[in-house]
Design brief:
- The strands form 2 sheets. A 12-stranded antiparallel β-barrel has the order 1-2-3-5-6-7-8-11-12-15-16-17. A 4-stranded antiparallel sheet has the order 9-10-13-14, with no helix packed on it.
- The radius of gyration is 23 Å and the shape is globular.
- A hairpin with a 4-residue loop joins β3 (107-119) and β4.
- It has helices at 2-19, 27-32, 36-55, and strands spanning 76-87, 90-102, 107-119, 124-128, 132-144, 147-158, 172-183, 186-196, 199-201, 207-209, 213-222, 233-245, 249-250, 253-254, 260-273, 276-290, 297-308.
- By secondary structure, the chain is mostly beta strands.
- The protein has 3 helices and 17 strands.
- The protein folds into 2 domains: 2-52, no CATH class; 59-308, monomeric porin ompg (Porin), CATH 2.40.160.40.
Length: 309
């Protein structure tokens, strides 16, 4: 808590020129007025203002990739997500609800409950998807003048809870590392994840060993205008998302039409108002190196709303 207050006071020093008019003071008055009571009141007012203004600056992750954000102890976060992806004649849409809980000030855990819809030229199917459990632990935090750096480890497990035809009928897992640098105006994130896909028993066809996938992401964000806590706030983001998949195998024989790499450029936004945020963006393919004959991605879209309780 002491470090948090010190960090906010440092931010006060950076942003005083913007906040001083709110209290009918000038930098010169504060610099040369040594009345103890006045200085205490000024610092208290500035700290309160900047806690409100900057608290949301350190409370969110990117759109298509993970960030190191966690919740305070016993904090609750609710997400509603809509995602859509189109590749050739195939289009899939997913509606998901996420619930997160702050186990400590550095450790969060949650559950994801999806509902999916898939369509192509031959069929259209809607059904409940597989439930996922996830967690994230922030192991490093560094507060400096006007900015904060953090890093976290994450893990996620997709369970085999759905028996419909949209399910992969497997248990998949993800582990990763994410880093974030956030200031009043600028954001930067980077992450690397490894997805381990479970095997699928295809009966007489044999055992399908789905190729694992590596995901690497870089993100930059910019806040064009600094507003008060009670005012809407906008941050614009640009992500570079890359995916590298291994060949899938059947009975240890590689499938020609599997595996390869893709890259996306992903513009997006984050609009916040107090404890609510709306985020959205679109992934546009800029690079394909898929093996054999595979459908290339046309676009991916995501829109989410979240509440901090």
């Amino acid at each position: 808590m002491v470090n948090f207050i010190r960090f906010k006071i440092l931010l006060c020093q950076c942003q005083f020129s913007q906040l001083a008019p709110l209290y009918n003071l000038t930098i010169k008055q504060v610099k040369y007025k040594y009345d103890g009571l006045l200085v205490q009141r000024v610092l208290l007012a500035l700290v309160v203002s900047l806690v409100a203004i900057t608290s949301r600056a350190y409370a969110h992750d990117p759109i298509f990739s993970p960030g190191p954000h966690v919740l305070f102890k016993d904090g609750i976060e609710v997400h509603g997500n809509v995602t859509q992806a189109k590749a050739g004649k195939e289009k899939s849409t997913s509606y998901a609800t996420e619930l997160k809980y702050g186990l400590t000030g550095d450790w969060v855990a949650g559950v994801e409950l999806p509902y999916q819809h898939f369509s192509n030229n031959e069929q259209s199917v809607s059904a409940l998807g597989d439930t996922s459990l996830f967690t994230k632990y922030r192991f490093w935090r560094n507060d400096t003048l006007g900015r904060q750096e953090t890093a976290a480890l994450l893990a996620k497990v997709k369970l085999n809870t759905s028996s419909n035809e949209l399910s992969t009928n497997s248990v998949d897992s993800i582990i990763g590392l994410t880093y974030g640098l956030e200031s009043i105006k600028w954001y930067r994130w980077a992450s690397i994840r490894q997805r381990f896909n479970g095997n699928i028993n295809k009966g007489q066809l044999g055992n399908l060993q789905r190729g694992n996938k590596t995901l690497i992401d870089f993100v930059i964000g910019y806040r064009p205008q600094l507003n008060g806590y009670r005012d809407p706030d906008m941050v614009y983001m640009l992500e570079l998302n890359t995916e590298f998949s291994q060949h899938s195998k059947v009975n240890n024989k590689s499938l020609v039409n599997s595996g390869g790499g893709q890259a996306f450029i992903s513009p997006g936004f984050m609009w916040t108002l107090r404890n609510m945020a709306i985020k959205g963006g679109v992934q546009l393919p800029i690079y394909h190196d898929l093996n054999g004959s595979q459908q290339k991605s046309d676009y991916r879209f995501k829109l989410s709303i979240e509440w901090h309780l």
